[in-house]
Amino acid sequence: MSHENLEIVQRFVERYNETGAPPWEEMDPDVVWVIDPGAFLAGTYRGREGVSTLFARMAEVFGEVRAEIDDYIDAGDSVVAIGRFRVSGALSGATGTQQIAAIFELRDGRITAYRSYLRREEALEAVGL
Question: In terms of CB atoms within 10 Å, which of 77, 78, 104, 113 comes out highest?
Answer without folding.
Answer: 104
